[in-house]
Amino acid sequence: MIEAVATEHIRHAERPLLDAGAPLMAHVAFAVAQRVRHELSARTGEVGGRRVVVLVGSGNNGGDGLFTAAHLARAGVRTLAVTVAPKVHAEGLEAARRAGVVVVSSASSARDSQDALSPGAAAREALAADVVVDAMLGIGAQGALRGAGGAIVRAVNRQRPRRGGPFVVAIDVPSGIGVDDGTVPGPVLRADLTLACGSPAPGLLLPPAAHLAQDVDVIDTGLDLSGATSKVLRLEDADVATLWPRALPEHDKYRRGVVGVVAGTRAYPGAAVLATGAAVRSGAGMVRHVGADDVTRAVLAAHPEVVHGTGRVQAWVVGPGLDTEDAAQLRQVDVALAEAGLGPGAYFSGAGVWGDGGSDGIVPVVVDAGALSRLPERCAPWIVLTPHAGELARLLTERGVAVDREQVESAPAEHAATAQRLTGATVLLKGATTVVVGPGQVLSQAEAPAWLATAGAGDVLAGLLGTLLAGRSREAVQHPDLVARLAALAALVHGRAATEANPGGPVSASMVVEALPRTIARLLAD
Ligand SMILES: NC(=O)C1=CN([C@@H]2O[C@H](COP(=O)(O)OP(=O)(O)OC[C@H]3O[C@@H](n4cnc5c(N)ncnc54)[C@H](O)[C@@H]3O)[C@@H](O)[C@H]2O)[C@H](O)CC1
Ligand SMILES: [K+]
């Protein structure tokens, strides 16, 4: 599991080390320089004589960059440091100059000096370099990258080729991302490699900023973060075996978990086929389908092991391909929501339902697509909403927070957290990076290949999550913390199955369903 702790905790953990005189910046700079040398030699076959441009900001992130530049110059790299602020880290500047780094300034105050370089010219230098080191802003960033740094990044972004071009290494974070919320308030230089100092900042895991920091490595600076409470988590493949509902020899099909799926209509029978198929193929003990007869016929033709009609379940999946005009199906959605411990319009206070759930028939429910409009005023945390950005915008607007899809997409974690707060449910917001927010928890998963943005993929995710919740139904109700983790687990496996279905190429939702059993087996064996 990757843990990104809020930057206030990083600051807090740095303090005693810095007070004791620990050479954290020297350590960071050494590690970054090593990595840049490695990349140069891997990419060009040599280190000496290659060109590196270091973009240097006013704070300690810039200091890291200047000391990195000094190491590189001593290793024979042709190193240019471009400062983007009138004042930069003084000792770092001195070390860089002493080591033979060429230092120029793009800050507007330097315009008439001999060492001035316009942002446009600095951008050309950067584009012609083998490696660019982004050391303009770290966790001290406030808002969009301003001044010369912003101008350089805008110019580079206009001309940077999709492939080829310089390899960009960001120190700590790509400069100018929202370090705690993952927003992208202004120009940011997409990093090919991000070397986080001490601990990754939450913004490195949260979309949309996470897409600008694909490959994240952590430089261990010895921070003690054990007391950190505010975190973003990301499950890794190694976590799958720990969280997955165990298939034990003594478990019959009921104890393995029965998933009830209320999905599909005559107009959209495919959603029911995909959701039930995903539930079956991810190892449910039994899957029941509740829907119109001809929809169930389509389901049975594809998955003969599915059982038609209602009965006892350990988790419900409601909503994929739902017909909001179909009164019978909507009643069934309401029944499922009532089995989560709350009927429509009921108020969930927290007390009373917690703790003794599961034992008296309370079950988790995945609420997708059309069923999102049937939610009670307050939900238990074992109700998992699985909206995409547009659906989340609608849900929030209905509850008095008027936002549109673009606003949700520009700050997914914040809006998912608002929906969590307003409903009480666990919220899984689908996207290229999926964000899950439960009470006091945030997780983000980025396994989905771009090809997975395809019709029916959400139905597969809902069915898969239904199996996970059914397999650990009792625990999910008794320990609601588990619910967000299972939701993140579903997103991880969904993404991995898509890759396994056709690595690097197009996938259909049915192909993902097909790939689930072998993907799960591989992940459980890892
Ligand atoms: N975690 C560790 O173990 C270590 C981290 N290190 C590095 O230190 C930075 C944080 O340094 P700090 O000086 O506090 O902040 P920044 O360098 O990010 O920048 C602050 C600086 O920038 C100006 N500024 C703020 N916002 C903007 C903006 N939007 N546009 C332009 N300028 C802006 C502000 O005025 C300040 O002057 C951390 O990220 C690591 O890289 C240490 O090396 C020690 C080990
Ligand atoms: K940076």
Automatic annotation (TrEMBL):
UniProt EC number: 4.2.1.136, 5.1.99.6
Catalytic activity from the UniProt record: (6S)-NADPHX + ADP = AMP + phosphate + NADPH + H(+); (6R)-NADHX = (6S)-NADHX; (6S)-NADHX + ADP = AMP + phosphate + NADH + H(+); (6R)-NADPHX = (6S)-NADPHX
One annotated GO biological process: metabolite repair
Keywords: ATP-binding, Isomerase, Kinase, Lyase, Metal-binding, Multifunctional enzyme, NAD, NADP, Nucleotide-binding, Potassium, Transferase
Pfam families: Carb_kinase, YjeF_N
Residue ranges of every copy of the YjeF N-terminal domain listed in the record: 1-229
Family membership noted in the UniProt record: In the C-terminal section; belongs to the NnrD/CARKD family. Belongs to the NnrD/CARKD family.
Subunit structure, interactors included: Homotetramer.
The protein, known as: Bifunctional NAD(P)H-hydrate repair enzyme
